[in-house]
Write a structure and sequence with these properties.
This protein is an alpha+beta fold and 251 residues long. Helices cover 52% and strands 14% of the residues. A hairpin with a 2-residue loop joins strand 5 and strand 6. It is flat and about 80 Å long. The mean pLDDT is 82.
Length: 251
């Protein structure tokens, strides 16, 4: 308790309860503000490191992410600790990760030391048992990964590779692979990728620009379909101006 609080308690002893409540509210407000500031700062730091999901993180990126979460938790909970003591270590970690990532681009050997290298577990249709042992990968793990790639028969796989981020890439045998339009000699028109241009009644201008569409086309389309913008749950479209509209449940 500081001198000011002690003076107030001695002069106004009946205000002791109010002072405790006031101090508690102030601590709560400070904690909320510190948490919000650190939250914004961590988002900024992660954006610098790059866009990846947790399942795609390399070893160094995962280590930095875990360390940042631990470091940020301390100044959030301890209001007496200055925020700079949490911000500086996070900046150092982000700088190290950026430097390591850039160095890995230039040096393949260094990249292999940090991230490892892909491992072939199925080679020309045959399971490499030694590779699976080195990866400590069970047969259940192997078949689970295959099922997640929509492969339910082992004999359909020509090659299966465990990438450095832990994910599996597979190449099916020609007899089991999906036939493409090019193999059939069929010419298809490329209308571009489908994008969400309206989500819950809100227009996504960036998606509209990506699909080379504009609000005038959207307005004319909605008039033709006799539907209002606020009644749309999802509307997708592509550059060929093919669209699909899903109405809200209560529309």
């Amino acid at each position: 308790m500081n001198k000011r609080d002690d003076f107030i308690l001695r002069k106004y002893p009946d205000h002791s309860g109010r002072l405790v409540i006031l101090n508690g509210v102030m601590i709560m407000i400070i904690t909320v503000l510190r948490t919000l500031l650190l939250y914004i700062f961590i988002i900024f730091a992660v954006r610098i490191m790059g866009k990846r999901t947790i399942s795609e993180l390399q070893t160094s990126e995962l280590v930095v992410t875990l360390l940042i979460s631990d470091i940020a938790a301390v100044p959030m909970q301890n209001t007496e600790q200055p925020m700079i003591s949490g911000i500086i270590p996070i900046l150092i970690l982000v700088a190290c990760e950026v430097f390591v990532s850039l160095f890995m681009l230039k040096n393949d050997k260094f990249r292999r030391v940090i991230c490892g290298k892909p491992v072939i577990v199925i080679n020309d249709g045959k399971i490499d048992q030694k590779a699976m042992t080195d990866l400590r990968m069970s047969t259940e793990d192997l078949f689970e990964e295959l099922r997640q790639k929509d492969v339910f028969k082992l004999e359909d796989v020509a090659y299966a590779i465990i990438e450095t981020n832990g994910k599996m890439s597979i190449l099916k045998k020609p007899a089991s692979d999906i036939v493409t339009a090019a193999q059939l000699g069929v010419q298809t028109k490329d209308n571009g990728m489908q994008a969400v241009i309206v989500s819950d009644g809100v227009i996504a201008d960036s998606s509209m620009e990506f699909c080379e569409l504009n609000r005038k086309w959207l307005k004319q389309t909605l008039i033709r379909e006799k539907i209002q913008l606020k009644d749309i749950f999802i509307m997708t479209a592509n550059r060929g101006r093919k669209y699909n509209i899903i109405k809200k449940a209560d529309a």
